[in-house]
Amino acid sequence: MLQADPLRERIVSLFEGMSPQLRQAARYIIEHPQEVALVSMRELARNAGVQPSTMTRLAKFLGLAGYDDIRAHHAEAIRFRVDGFAARAMQNDDSEQDMAAAQLSRRMLQGLAAQIARLTEPASLERLASAADRLAQARRIYVLGLRSCHSVAWHFHYVMTLLGEKTVHLDGPADTVGDGLIRAGAEDVLLAISINPYALHSLELAQLAREKGLGVIAITDSEVSPLVGIADLAILCSTESQSFFHTLAPALAISEVLCGLLANKDRTAALAALQRADRHLLSLNTYATAIPRRRI
Length: 296
Fold this sequence. Notes:
It contains 13 helices and 5 strands. By secondary structure, it is of the alpha/beta class. It has a 5-stranded parallel beta sheet with strand order 2-1-3-4-5. The chain is globular and about 70 Å long. It starts with 5 loop residues before the first helix and ends in a 13-residue tail after the last helix. Residues 81-96 have low confidence and may be disordered. GO terms for molecular function: DNA binding.
């Protein structure tokens, strides 16, 4: 993820005024800056699902002479930035369907490592710290994640229940997900997680929370995510994967970091809460205390 990039900032600022095809091309460029620098315009357009002429029209829309200006800009930016795994992955031939399992596993794990490592960039660390501060100040934290993002929301809520009763997981049967916001107000915060394709109900509930006066913090995948326009603060994470499916590993990493930062704000209280949770779980005989012998 390229930081403090004037071209990237211009794309984001003009995104809402673009046609659907230009948006599709612009989003792909934002999310694949290394690819812009490494492949031809035709290949990039094919990967983005648009016509090559769309890339030219996008460049004109941005006030540039042509697509070569976009490519040259990204080539110059990447020259001064080592993004090892991602850059090397772009140089490899991904068309081999008979790729060995070990090779594919290595590529996937290297990609995940690079994506999580990018969360240590200064801008991401600043957003994480700001989000933790805002969550710590809230009376209640309402946690929302639908479809694939449900696991991230549940993880955050589960860990936080070990520390107290501050979180409310918006997860109800019979279309009652939004009912949890009935008593929510300006002293509360919504932590919303959503990635492309964005669950419509997540966006609707985030907008409802905004209208009710809640602060909104988003974990999402792009500067042009619809959640960014609703949220006070957005923490961005990549979801690209070497497999057929989006990855949620970076989003889960963000969840873990936020929980850790919140616990660290009052270590004495956190320790007492965890000890209380341990005693309760022990009384329920929740976990195995002896490992059964294996049958030979």
